[in-house]
Amino acid sequence: MVQGNFNDYPLLTAKELPEIGVSFVRATDDPIAGIGEEAIGWVAPAVCNAIFALTGTRVRSLPIRPDTLKRA
Prior knowledge:
By secondary structure, the protein is an all-alpha fold. 18% of the residues lie in helices and 0% in strands.
């Protein structure tokens, strides 16, 4: 193990992401749900880091609620 915690782990930026191919396969007759989630996996960490930069409070759970944010 090289990293001690997530803050030591180098994350990919949007420019560094490889091309992602997505195929939709209908497994049932139910409507497809959840399309688009594959592309936004890096948005929540960026928003949480922006909230920390603004308030000094780390977001530890989702969804983000205003009552859980306090200035440090």
